[in-house]
Specification:
With 258 residues, the chain is an alpha+beta fold. The chain has 5 helices and 15 strands.
Length: 258
């Protein structure tokens, strides 16, 4: 009796985050999941992706870098870049992360700001919404309405608001139910002044391809204040492949880099 009384007091002091989603928004989410593969999409645990990452400067594309990306849901990712003969690796798991810089051949822990940037990328991702990871953070989803998305095309828009008042908007094609955009704000350091400024950011999705019953965008464009800043272009994607878990473990030294 005393044991259950203690438990009730603990749960009363630490209640589970309240979550809510209106009926219209839930219908949009359900249709999107079905379109992307339904149960097969939700059963994906790992992703190995290869392709090219291209940054943009003043609207002009720079030299692309080849990347190899390993994802283990919900919060582990290792991305290897090869460009200009230099290999770099960025790896994150939860609240930790490390970086290998192939120029000076150096391994270092990520700064708190870098780790927070990775966590921000997770909570502004499509998977954060569709896989329901937002629920553990106590989010609230509301229907925003339809938006123009080109000639004779409209997107259904929903908004996820988290307890800290941070919000992310997701747009899905009204006819095809495919993800179209993710819109959010963030704080960035201005490269000229060094001051922290708020920016409007947007991911746009294109070239949807089905592999093993799972559909995903193979081209992802990122915009900052209306100007394109990067493009991810996949060449291949593999789902639910096994890979060594120590890929995410920080190597003891440079020679141990795999």
């Amino acid at each position: 009796m005393v044991f259950f009384l203690i438990l009730s007091l603990i749960f009363a002091q630490n209640p589970a985050p309240a979550v809510s989603v209106d009926e219209k928004s839930q219908q949009i989410i359900d249709r999107a999941i079905t379109t992307l593969g339904g149960p097969k999409y939700l059963r994906v645990q790992t992703v190995i992706g290869k392709g090219f990452f291209t940054s943009f400067r003043d609207g002009v594309s720079q030299l692309p870098a080849r990347f190899l990306d390993y994802i283990y849901y919900p919060d582990s990712e290792r991305t290897e870049f090869n460009g200009g003969g230099i290999r770099t690796i960025q790896t994150n798991t939860g609240d930790t992360g490390w970086v290998y810089d192939g120029g000076p051949k150096k391994i270092s822990d990520q700064s708190p700001a870098q780790v927070e940037e990775f966590k921000r990328a997770i909570r502004t991702s499509l998977e954060y919404l569709l896989r329901g990871y937002w629920k553990k953070d106590g989010g609230k989803i509301t229907y925003v309405g339809r938006r123009e998305a080109g000639l004779a095309k409209r997107n259904e828009t929903i908004r996820l608001t988290l307890p800290d008042d941070y919000w992310i908007e997701y747009e899905f094609g009204a006819k095809d139910n495919l993800p179209a955009k993710i819109i959010y704000k963030r704080q960035r350091k201005d490269p000229d002044s060094g001051d922290m400024v708020e920016t409007n950011e947007e991911d746009q999705f294109f070239k949807f391809i089905e592999i093993d019953g799972v559909t995903a965008p193979w081209v992802i464009d990122h915009y900052i204040n209306g100007k394109q800043s990067s493009r991810i272009n996949y060449e291949s994607v593999q789902y639910n492949q096994t890979f060594p878990p120590d890929l995410f473990t920080k190597p003891a030294n440079v020679k141990a880099i795999k």
